[in-house]
Amino acid sequence: MSIDNVDRIGLRRKPKQERSIQRFDLILSAAAEIIAEKGVSAMRMTELAVAAKVPIGSVYQYFPEKAAIVKALFDRHASEVQAKTAQVFANVHSLEDALHLIEGMIDWYYDAYRNDPTYLGVWMGTETDQDLLRLNIDHSNRVADIFYEAVKRVAPELEAIDMQARTYLFSHLIGASIRLAVKSEEELALRMLGEWKRVIRASLFSKAS
User: Which residue positions in the chain have pLDDT lower than 50?
Assistant: First the structure.
């Protein structure tokens, strides 16, 4: 990612004083509400300023454009997911244990996104912007690394390159499957997630041919 791209989706400045932090949080909270209601593409900076009850200049003081707001919200979510993943897989005892925990994480993802339209909107928004999409992929890879390290401790005999490829692939596909499920009727969503769990059980730790 180039410096220009980092500047484009990064913060212009970080709030340091209490008043600035409060205003920054007001902007992000208002953005979250708009995204939950309308989606990222429909959010306008002027509308955001009105919703946050701050001058439009205050919005641009921190965020050069809308993509930077999406990144700030996404970073908060990604940190939560990575912390949750690290906590869940900190004490894996066997491959069966790992599979059980993956199934639990899929259920947690699904419940979290189905009950929080902001996260879904932000996640979907990262797929319409190349720089944000790269962040999304990097996030999936970090989650995969956490899982891979846990599996490596209990099954060092597994081929490293195969397991790394699988964990990266499965981490990204789990995200895609959750997004599809959340946008579907609940009965169908649960059936799809059940099928996906069976695929994971059958193939994640299978021997490469």
Answer: 1-4
Which of the listed CATH numbers 1.10.3470, 1.25.40, 1.10.357, 3.40.50 matches domain 68-203?
A: 1.10.357
CA contacts within 13 A on the Cβ side of 109: 29
Tens of pLDDT, residues 106-141? 999 999 888 888 888 888 888 888 888 999 999 999
Superfamily of domain 3-67: Homeodomain-like (1.10.10.60)
pLDDT for the residue 6: 53
The pLDDT of residue 208 is 67
Residue ranges per structural domain of the chain? 3-67, 68-203
User: What DSSP assignment string belongs to the chain?
Assistant: --HHHHHHHS-SS---SHHHHHHHHHHHHHHHHHHHHH-TTT--HHHHHHHHTS-HHHHHHH-SSHHHHHHHHHHHHHHHHHHHHHHHTTT--SHHHHHHHHHHHHHHHHHHHHT-HHHHHHHHHGGGSHHHHHHHHHHHHHHHHHHHHHHHHH-TTS-HHHHHHHHHHHHHHHHHHHHHHHTS-HHHHHHHHHHHHHHHHHHTTSPP-
